[in-house]
C-alpha cells in the first residue's frame, strides 16, 4: 500500500464518530467473508464471534481461531475469505500464513491501535486495505498525559508523603498554564492530548512528517533528529505517542535527554522500545530530567529488577492507562457496526493504516 493512498482524515474517535457514520442507504455491493483471528474465549470479541449475534447485512463469519491450526485453510480459500479481524496477541505468524495462502484477502482490521504486534514483511507488502482501532484510546491517554503533567507540576508525591506524616507544609507549585508540551507522534492520541493542553493554557509544539501548523500547535517541526532535539530543548513536558516502527525503534535516547530543557518531564504512552531505557534511567538519576510518566516499557511486564521501580521521580503504570472496562468490546463493536457496513457497501473505511509505514 502506498503512503499516498492513505487518507488520514478518515479517522474515528468518540468525539466525532457521529459525524462519520456510514450511509445506510448506500447499496450493498459485496459480501464480507470474515476470518476472526482471535481468542475464542475472549468476551470482548462477542459482537463478532458470538453466533447468536446478527452481523450486518452482507457479512458472514467463516472461522474463529488463535493459531493457523485452528483454520481449515483450504476451505477458507474455496469460500473466498476476504476479511481478517485480528485481536490475538500472538497473531503475527498465523496472519502471515493466512495472507500468503489466501490470495482473496482484501482487508485486515486490527482491534488494537498499534500494529507492531502483527508487523511482518508480508503485511508490509500487502496490497489490500488495513485499518485499526485508532481513536478508541485517545481520550483516556490524553487524560493520563495531563494527569502526569500535573503530578510533577503540583508535586503530588510530596503531598502524599506529607499527608501520611500529617505534616502541614506549604510549598510553591508550578502552573501548567504558560508551559510547553512537546508531542512526538502527532496522531490521534497526540492531537487529543494537544486539545486538552490548549484548554489548560499550554503551548504545544509537535513533530510532523509534513510540518504544517494546525489550530492546536503553536509550532510544528519536521520529524528529523535535529527537530527532535530542538523539541526536547524547548519543552517543559515531552509526550511520546508515536507508534513502534523500524524508524521509531530507539529513536529517543541519550542525545535527546542531553538536549532536554532543565526541569523537563518525559511522558511515554507510545511504545517502550522507542526509548533507550538505560539512557532514560541515567537521565532521571542525574537530574537531566525532572521526572517521567511511563505507561509503556521496553519489556513488559517490567522486570522487578528494573531501577525504574525504585526511582522517586517516576510515575509508573502497567500499560493500562488506555484500559477501561469496555475498551476492547467497544473496539470490536466499531469493526462490526461501522467498518463492516462500509466495506460491504464499498464505502471508505475508517482508520486506514499505511501497511508499509506501520501506522
TrEMBL record:
<dbReference type="GO" id="GO:0051287">
    <property type="term" value="F:NAD binding"/>
</dbReference>
<dbReference type="InterPro" id="IPR006140">
    <property type="entry name" value="D-isomer_DH_NAD-bd"/>
</dbReference>
<protein>
    <recommendedName>
        <fullName>D-isomer specific 2-hydroxyacid dehydrogenase NAD-binding domain-containing protein</fullName>
    </recommendedName>
</protein>
<dbReference type="GO" id="GO:0016491">
    <property type="term" value="F:oxidoreductase activity"/>
</dbReference>
<feature type="domain" description="D-isomer specific 2-hydroxyacid dehydrogenase NAD-binding">
    <location>
        <begin position="148"/>
        <end position="319"/>
    </location>
</feature>
<keyword id="KW-0560">Oxidoreductase</keyword>
<dbReference type="InterPro" id="IPR029753">
    <property type="entry name" value="D-isomer_DH_CS"/>
</dbReference>
<dbReference type="Pfam" id="PF02826">
    <property type="entry name" value="2-Hacid_dh_C"/>
</dbReference>
<keyword id="KW-0520">NAD</keyword>
<dbReference type="InterPro" id="IPR036291">
    <property type="entry name" value="NAD(P)-bd_dom_sf"/>
</dbReference>
